[in-house]
Amino acid sequence: QRWPMWLIPAALSASATTTRPLVATPRVGRARPAACSADVDEAKFRHNRRSVDRLQLAVLVSVPAAWGTFAPAVKLANAASPVPFPAVLFSAGQYVVASSLLLAATALVPPAAPASPAPTPPPRFAWAAGAELGGYLFIGNLLQVSGLATVPADRGSFLVQTTTLMVPLLQALSQGGLGSVSAKTWTACALAFVGVLCMSASDGGGGGGLSIAFGPGDVLVLSSAVLYSLHVLRLSALAPAVPPLRLAVAKAGAETVYAALAVCALMTALPNSPPAIEVARFVEALGTMGDGAKATLAASAAWCGAVTVAYTIWAQSFGQSSGMSATQANLIYTTQPLWSVLFAALLVSEVPTSSEALGGAVIAAALWLAASDEAAQAGSALAEDEASKAV
Q1: Mean pLDDT throughout 200-206?
Q2: How far, CA to CA in Å, does 34 sit from each of 5, 15, 16?
Q3: Which residue has the higher pLDDT, 149 or 49?
């Protein structure tokens, strides 16, 4: 028997004020069982869960868009500086800005209610997770910057984006075999890899394309890709257990400590190394820079620290806390070259090439394939859940 909707509020009210096993008694007929309240609560929970999942997906999509602003910001900083802007100082400045903003956020934003009844881990767990994840990113960044000193930018971008294949491979190995990743997802990863290759190919003369010969710089950049892949994989495992803001603060704090130690070690233990000499020259030139140049440098560092570091650290933690697989999350991150091309065209008037347009289309196709596979798996899981409840 179907009951009118006006009974539901009465049922919920009665359940809170009476100890009788029946929630509400209709005017005629049988009493409605107490399970009605549980059904309504479950429906509300599922609706709220879907809303949160959509929000987490939207936040995750914004991560590569934020990363896409990094290269134009660095180009503006280098153009304003009369001497090369030391990468280690720029990174340290970013981390200081990011840590300060995230710490301020913890003081201003009230703690979110736990998404599950599972107990929240102690603070030391969050700091340990932040130290691990921040270590992957910091060492990976050092290896990447060192490798790019001898590797062309387009080739370096291609090598870094090999994470598109590394993440599903590492996930499959950690889960007991290649079959743990669906065929559609493997196909999507391969398509995304081809798209990145197209975007990295040169349309210029001199033979174009990417050289196949490998050198020490290539090994360093590939090593950084391995560490970035481990970060994505471990974040999918750790993010659901730690509140996103707490994990973001821990990770940014760890990276700030690592950067400070690196600068101190560079200036004291290796004062004659090229990076240390670069830092010394920049500090000397800073006193003679105009106010406009200083403002541009400060704005670039502040933007990168706030948007490409602080926001993305939190956004990755929040987005991947939904339980999304590392492979699916990394496919979203693969769109970074598309955003880089877009912002380069808008901010520094760089015209996209035909190979970049082709690569963008292939990456979009890969994302569509991955999204369809994710939707199919979610629908199958929901059907199994409904079937088990019906039994």
Answers
A1: 51
A2: 15, 8, 12
A3: 149
Distance from C-alpha of 50 to C-alpha of 386, rounded to nearest angstrom: 16
Q: Is residue 371 part of a domain?
A: yes
Note whether 337 and 67 are within 8 A (CB): no
Tell me the backbone φ, ψ of residue 175, rounded to 5 degrees: -105, 10
- Give the residue-averaged pLDDT of 278-306: 89
Distant-in-sequence, close-in-space partners of 349: CB < 8 Å, separation ≥ 6: none
How many domains is the chain partitioned into structurally? 1
Characterise 176 by phi-psi region: left (phi > 0), alpha (psi -120 to 50), beta (else): left
Determine what percent of the chain is predicted with pLDDT higher than 70: 72
Residue 271 is encoded by which pair of tokens?
């004062």
Model confidence pTM above 0.85: no
User: Does 309 have pLDDT greater than 80?
Assistant: yes
Q: Which residues pair with 24 in a beta bridge?
A: 32
Q: Is residue 312 part of a domain?
A: yes
Exposure string for 135-164, b = 16+ CB within 10 A, e = fewer: bbbbebbbbbbbbbeebeebbbbbbbbbbb
Instruction: Return the number of other C-beta atoms located less than 10 Å from residue 207's C-beta.
Output: 7
Tokens of 231: 């970060």
330, amino acid identity:
N
Model confidence at 321, pLDDT cuts 50, 70, 90, reads confident
| pLDDT, averaged across the chain | 75
Q: Is residue 42 part of a domain?
A: no
List of residues 6+ apart from 224 with CB closer than 8 A? 139, 140, 141, 142, 143, 144, 147, 160
**CB–CB of 345/68 below 8 Å?**
no
| Proportion of the chain in helix, strand, coil states, percent, rounded to 5 | 75, 0, 25
Query: pLDDT tier at 9 (50, 70, 90 boundaries)?
Result: very low
pLDDT at 376 over 80: no
- CA dist 33 and 40 (Å) reads 13
Beta-carbon contacts of 199 under 8 Å, excluding residues fewer than 6 positions away, are 157, 337, 341, 355, 356, 359, 360, 363
Residue 77, in any domain of the structure: yes
Q: How far is CA 364 from CA 3, 350, 360, 368, 370, in A?
A: 48, 21, 6, 6, 10
For 28, the token pair is 């005629």
Q: State the DSSP H helix or E strand holding residue 180, giving kind and residue range, or none if neither.
A: none
